[in-house]
Design goal:
Elements (H helix, E strand, L loop, with lengths): L2 H16 L18 E3 L6 H7 L4 H7 L13 E3 L14 E3 L6 H8 L3 H7 L13 E3 L2 H7 L4 E2 L4 E2 L24 E4 L10 E4 L5 E3 L4 E7 L7 E6 L4 E11 L6 E2 L4 E5 L4 E8 L2 E3 L7
Antiparallel strand pairs: 1-2, 3-4, 5-6, 7-8, 8-15, 9-14, 10-11, 10-13, 11-12, 12-14, 12-15, 15-16
Length: 287
């Protein structure tokens, strides 16, 4: 075989190999790991757990058969599989009293008259409640009690004349900057930036961006440092991260003027607002 013939044979072999490359189109991607459960740790609340996994708190509660008290205990295992749940459909018939609750705050939360709620539960003024106590929210019982006077140890009185001990959620929220500073990182979900970063000065005081109730205060969420979450309505939550010192506790009501935390030496605050469980641009709310 001549050198020319040998060279032609080698070229034909190479061309034949290159015409049938190995296919990579049908190669399956390895299955991703999905977290299905969460074990409750000390200091966690259902709000902080829902925040961690980008879930709506009432949907997480429904998936775990929790009532509106959202009471959880350390060591409890929660399911994170919410399926196609959208909202709690069945009417709430009972409420488990949490620390800091009053009859007035419960009535405000569920949109019922305090007087009817007191009568339906056979409570007398001054309507003292104990953590763990079950309050009925049964519609029939509330309708029967509607408009009737409440019995006290001395005389009949109308609960409607008594002022609530805790504020109701405002329907027309006015948002203000929680701290003075410069926005150095903007809201960009595509870049996994669910909030904004504000550069202030060391030790700056942080205020609530809007009135509400503290539903989480701690350092249990990785990446947030010392964190505060405030509930402003059934749909709106705000979060204040990277604090050096927390000045409020879970269950505490706050107003614009109230100090909630102190920043550290870097003076950096991370701020989020979530509507119905989804991150939204804080700059669309803060004036």
């Amino acid at each position: 075989m001549t050198n020319l013939t040998l060279l032609l044979s080698l070229l034909l072999i190479i061309a034949g190999c290159s015409s049938s490359p190995a296919s990579v189109i049908d190669r399956a991607q390895p299955p991703s790991i999905r977290i299905k459960t969460h074990q409750v740790e000390v200091g966690e609340t259902l709000y902080s757990i829902a925040w961690r996994y980008d879930l709506k708190v009432d949907i997480l509660a429904q998936a775990n058969n929790l009532d509106r008290s959202y009471l959880i205990t350390p060591g409890q295992t929660l399911s994170l599989i919410v399926g196609n749940l959208k909202s709690i459909q069945s009417p709430i018939k009972q409420y488990r009293v949490s620390k800091g609750d009053t009859l007035f705050s419960i009535a405000s939360e569920y949109g019922v008259e305090v007087q009817a709620l007191a009568l339906a539960n056979r409570l007398e003024s001054p309507f003292l409640l104990q953590p763990g106590q079950i309050i009925t929210l049964d519609t029939n019982a509330l309708k029967t009690a509607q408009g009737k006077p409440v019995q006290t140890s001395k005389k009949l009185t109308s609960v409607n004349q008594t002022k609530a001990e805790t504020p109701t959620y405002s329907k027309n929220l006015e948002w203000k900057w929680p701290v003075k500073g410069e926005v150095i990182e903007s809201f960009s979900p595509a870049k996994l930036q669910k909030g904004i970063k504000v550069k202030s000065v060391a030790g700056s005081t942080v205020h609530a961006a809007a009135p509400g109730n503290v539903v989480y205060a701690g350092s249990g969420l990785r990446g947030y440092g010392k964190l505060i979450i405030i509930k402003h309505s059934d749909m709106l939550l705000s979060a204040y991260a990277n604090n050096e010192k927390l000045l409020v506790k879970v269950g505490q009501s706050v107003q614009h003027k109230d100090e909630i935390s102190k920043l550290g030496l870097e003076g950096m605050m991370y701020f989020e607002i979530r509507k119905d469980g989804d991150p939204v641009n804080p700059l669309n709310y803060i004036k």
